[in-house]
């Protein structure tokens, strides 16, 4: 049932000690280190008894996404993420290119063929980004929520659990410093695809 003994840690005092010991040298580096240490303190200290099964606890759901082959893409550096999406785009093009060729012969309509091919290449990356966004948004909402729904043994005995203040603060810190940046990155990629489609529409109207 995911019950753990509460550790005898005074969180306020610990956080204050971290703040006092932080001697800024490089502001960006110090801020990143402080965030990581702050999150680790909460994740180590807030182990209050919880009736929610371990696999349904929001923090464990977050860790499961981190370990997931697909959802961990959002955590990659930009070059790694774009490389994987490019591979997906290439596979998408190969999969749909026969339809493009049959609809617009490259010999007769080269411009239209290129435009349709670009759209075809974006289909699977777009669906992949939707999957990433939905998964991370679900975890974000459960981490942010003061009350979470869980099932003890099945859908028929579901109930809500109200998070203690310490656990709610911990979960919201994870959202602020870990989940939200990933979601903003996915939103930027959606914006990039939207710009490409807008350009496609303009070119299509011209040619």
Notable characteristics:
69% helix, 2 domains, 6 helices, mainly alpha, two-stranded antiparallel ribbon, 207 residues, elongated
Protein model, in words:
With 207 residues, the chain is mostly helical. The protein has helices at 11-21, 27-45, 58-67, 78-103, 110-144, 165-206; strands at residues 147-151, 158-162. A hairpin with a 6-residue loop joins strand 1 (147-151) and strand 2. Helix 1 runs antiparallel to helix 2 (27-45). The longest helix is centred in the C-terminal third of the chain and has 42 residues, at 165-206.
Task: Specify the number of helices.
Answer: 6
**What ranges have pLDDT less than 50 throughout 5 or more consecutive residues?**
1-27
Tally of distinct domains: 2
| Radius of gyration, whole Å | 23 Å
Fraction of residues in H or I helices = 55-70%
Strand order of the largest sheet: 1-2
Strand segment count = 2
Looking at the structure, what is the overall shape?
elongated
**What percentage of the residues does DSSP assign to strands (E)?**
under 5%
Brief overview:
The chain has 207 residues and is mainly α. The chain has helices at 11-21, 27-45, 58-67, 78-103, 110-144, 165-206; strands spanning 147-151, 158-162.
Chart the SSEs and their pairings.
Layout: H1 11-21, H2 27-45, H3 58-67, H4 78-103, H5 110-144, E1 147-151, E2 158-162, H6 165-206
Antiparallel strand pairs: 1-2
Helix pairs in contact: 1-2, 2-6, 3-5, 4-5, 5-6
């Amino acid at each position: 049932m995911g019950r753990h003994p509460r550790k005898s840690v005074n969180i306020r005092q610990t956080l204050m000690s971290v703040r006092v010991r932080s001697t800024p040298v490089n502001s960006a580096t110090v801020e990143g280190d402080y965030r990581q240490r702050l999150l680790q303190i909460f994740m180590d200290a807030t182990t209050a008894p919880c009736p929610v099964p371990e696999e349904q606890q929001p923090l464990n759901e977050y860790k499961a996404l981190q370990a997931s082959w697909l959802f961990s893409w959002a955590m990659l550096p930009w070059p790694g993420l774009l490389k994987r999406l490019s591979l997906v785009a290439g596979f998408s093009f190969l999969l749909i290119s026969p339809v493009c060729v049959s609809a617009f012969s490259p010999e007769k309509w080269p411009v239209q063929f290129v435009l349709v091919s670009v759209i075809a290449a974006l289909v699977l990356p777009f669906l992949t980004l939707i999957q990433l966004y939905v998964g991370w948004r679900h975890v974000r909402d459960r981490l942010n929520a003061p009350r979470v729904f869980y099932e003890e043994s099945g859908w028929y005995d579901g109930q809500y659990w109200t998070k203690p203040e310490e656990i709610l603060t911990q979960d919201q810190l994870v959202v602020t410093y870990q989940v939200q940046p990933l979601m903003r990155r996915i939103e930027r990629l959606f914006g990039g695809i939207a710009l490409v489609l807008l350009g496609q529409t303009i070119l299509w109207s011209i040619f």
